[in-house]
Structures are given as structure tokens and as C-alpha cells.
Amino acid sequence: MAARIVQEFTKGLWKEIAPLRFALGICSALAVSTRVDNALGLGIAVVFVTCMSNVLISLVRNLVPDKVRIAVFISIIATAVVIVELVMQAYFYPLFLVLGIWIPLIVVNCIVLGRAEAFARKNPVALSLADGLGMGLGFTLSLLVIASIREVLGSGSWLGIAVLPDGYPGFGFLLRPPGAFVIFGVLLAAMNVVSKRLEKR
Amino acid sequence: MQDYLLLIIAAMFVNNIVLILFLGNCPLVGVTSSMESAFGMGAAVVFVTTLAGTACWIVQRFALEPLALEYLQTLVFILIIASLVQFVEIVLQKVAPPLYRTLGIFLPLITTNCMVFGAAILSIKHDYTFLQTLVFCLAAAVGFALVLVFMAGLRERMEVSGRIPAALQGVPITMITAGMMGLSFAGLLGMAH
After folding, report:
1. Among A53, A179, B73, B86, which is disulfide-ready with A174 (CB 3.0 to 4.6 Å)?
2. What are the structural domain ranges in chain A?
3. Is the ipTM of this complex over 0.95?
């Protein structure tokens, strides 16, 4: 059992890392990745939502008729998101303002409903929690990678600390929406090359 | 009148909902491999976004705000959208079977399409009137459909050319193309906000 839990947890971090492997949940991944701190904030919110929704859905999995399951899942996910929204508004107000509509939009993040549908409705609570945690952290990890590239090359800092020399002009294109698409495409291509190399070995 | 024209241009091109606001990127990857599916999805989204955006506006103004329940916005909106999609599906199946056959398979996907939900939230956030909400949702969704159709056309051409390196095939090249398209849309910045 313990081995199974570890396996379900770690698959979300590399083998099935959702944004980079399946292009799931990329809307918010691209939108908030201009700075590392924002990416971290949204990542933590998503981890909370995937864990909570996976656990709750796994608990009710035998009670919900198949036909209405999507509506039930969506209501559970929306409840988790409302909790995140209210907590952030109360305790992390500046972050709440920066993330703006991306907090309520966690409801329609494909990863959350995807995990409910593909995993939590068929598996016991402990496994579902491991899966939710892994997938959420995988999302956070992808966000951090994209945000690190964009913040370092775009504004010469990482987490607000200057890392490139003072005279660095900043590659502004990366901070704009089109830059996000291009950098994400290049990252995916690089990931394809790397995993192909690893497979050959 | 001019205000509405500006609103349309801003929603459709300048702040394009897919390329500039990053809403609805999953279908941009998922359904643009053929022109036919891009067109079907685009039409379905235009239909649902306009309906859902205005329905959410009505509920927000006449139910949530008088009762001071704004904090339930997320939960209520997503339920409105989900039930509306189900309703549209049933009605189309009965009233217009040919249309249902074209749009049918795309309708369930729309429930979790962030652009429907995003357009509804944005209209509330911008304090639009009812008519402005209607125009905004319609224009934003048409902008979405346009990008989808453009992208499908480009991807079909790329497929035929057969010159895309193996590592870039599929999602990576789609993203890079979206970036290039986004640049041309960003060129309109300054025309309207």
C-alpha cells in the first residue's frame, strides 16, 4: 500500500506532469507566470484544491449516481475554490489582487476535474490524496519552471531578487502574452527531446 | 454607438480572449487539428458564452447582489453554466438535429472551458450593463472562434508541408504559432482598451 501511495504521488511530478505532458491547465500556467512569487501563490492554491476535491470525491464515490457525477464533482470543486478565494482575500490580499480572476478560474482548470474523473472516483481516499498532491505539485513545478525563465530573462530577477547585472535591459517580449506561448512551446519541445533521450538509454 | 463599436474591437482583437487573456487555451490545442472541428467548437462556444454570460449577469444583479451573496459567485456561475450547457444540448437535440450533430460532441467540453466562465466573470468585474455584457460576450466568443479557425488552417498547412521537426510536432509548434499570432494581435494595442 505504502509503495502504491508513493507511486501515485510521484507520477504527477515527472511521468504524468499535467501541463508539460498533456498541455492541461495551461491557461493559468501561462497567465500568471510572469513572476515567480505569483506562480508560487497560484500553485499552492491549486495544490489545496486538487487535494481537497480528490479526497471529498473519493469519499462520496460510491454514493453518486454516474449520470449526475459531473455536476456533483463541479460543485465540490467549486466549494474548495470558494474556500481558497475567501482565505486568500482575508490573509493574502495583495496576492489575491494580483491573481485576480485566476483564483475563481481554478474551478475550470482541466487538471482538477480531470483527476476527479480519471482517478478519485475509482480509488480509495489515501491514494486519491497522494494523486491530488502529486498532480498539484506537478502543476506548481511546471509553473515555477516557466516563471523562472520568464522572470530571469524578462526582468533580470528571480523571486524579486536581482540575479543579472544591473545594466541588463530585460527581454520584455517574454513578459508579454505572446512570449508566454513561445517560451512554453520551446519548453515542450525541449522536454520531448529530453524524454526521448532518456527512453533510449 | 461608438462605445459599442470600440467594445467589440477591444474584446475581439485587442484583448483577444485566447491570445492575450489566456482563456480557453485547451481547445486551442485540442480541437484545431482539423478545420471542421475548429468551426464546430467555435460556433458552439459563441452560442453558449453569449447565453451564459447574460444569464450570469442577470443572476448576479437580481439575486446575488440584493441578497449579499457575492461570495457564492464562483459556485453559482459554474452551476448556471453547467446546467445551461445541458439544457442547450437537450433543446438542440429536439429542435435542430442537424445542428446538434455538428455541435453535439463539443457541448460537454464547454462546461469546463474557462472562456465561458471567464467572460461571465469579466463582465461582472468590469461593471458592464446588460447590453454591454451581451455585446462583450458575443464579441469575445467570436474572437475565440476566429483564432480557432485561423489556427486550424495553419495547422492543416503545416501538416501537409511535413517539414516540422519531430520534437516540435503537435503541441509545441501550436504554442509557438499561437505566440506569433498573438504578436500580430498585440500590434493593435492602443486602438482601444
Report:
1. A179
2. 2-147
3. no
